[in-house]
Design brief:
By secondary structure, the chain is α+β, with helices and mostly antiparallel strands. The protein is about 35% helix and about 35% strand. The chain has a domain at about 1-115: Aminopeptidase (3-Layer(aba) Sandwich). The chain is globular and about 40 Å long. The structure holds coenzyme A (COA).
């Protein structure tokens, strides 16, 4: 399930975001320091176009889902996620949590958020996540090259329309 983040969880979220594998899958890969993190959260929490939710896997906080680009006339939005890789690996629950977070994000997007189209972007090299998205019906809508910390990386844009979800 997805729920609001409590203030005391902010440091936990920073730790998850700073995991080397999450940084390697992101579009901004430097280690996020506490002050930058606090500024980012202060901006995000009052921005109607963005939302951050905590994903709970079997009752344990296990990751973050972010929605951006909300409030458009065409009822579209984008999402991203990262998980507590260390905690889930220890619990042997990484694969079910990947599936769970994807399902929860799609349900939230087309349910409470009322979206008609859900977009996401993923590094082309991130084949595991591309496959996961494909399994949930996302189609790859194109690619572009983006500067990721000084390196040109190929990024795949994906989309899912509400009518395509059973
Ligand atoms: C992982 C993922 C969410 C990261 O996305 P991202 O665009 O690199 O970063 P975010 O959406 O987190 O952040 C966008 C901006 O907010 C900033 N930001 C994000 N989290 C922040 C934080 N905790 N503190 C401060 N700033 C933050 C970023 O630096 C970035 O700033 P910029 O626009 O000035 O470059 C995204 O790449 C994704 O969904 N990938 C596919 C799924 C995946 O592979 N997940 C990891 C596997 S567990």
């Amino acid at each position: 399930m997805l729920r609001q983040m409590a203030d005391h969880e902010l440091e936990t979220v920073r730790r998850w975001r700073n995991h080397p594998k999450v940084r390697a899958a992101s579009f901004t890969c430097h280690e996020i320091r506490p002050a930058e993190h606090a500024r980012w959260w202060a901006d995000l929490r009052v921005d109607p176009a963005r939302r951050l939710l905590v994903y709970e896997h079997q009752g344990t906080p296990a990751g973050v889902v972010t929605f951006t680009g909300l409030g458009t006339l065409d009822h579209s939005g984008s999402w991203g996620f990262y998980l507590d890789l260390d905690g889930l690996e220890r619990a042997g629950a990484l694969l079910p949590a990947w599936i769970g977070v994807e399902r929860a994000a799609i349900e939230h997007a087309f349910g409470p958020l009322g979206l008609r189209t859900l977009y996401a972007e993923v590094l082309a090299a991130n084949e595991a996540v591309r496959r996961l998205h494909g399994r949930f019906g996302f189609t790859e809508a194109g690619t572009y090259t983006r500067d990721v910390d000084g390196v040109a990386r190929e990024v795949v844009r994906i989309r899912l329309d509400r009518e395509e979800v059973q």
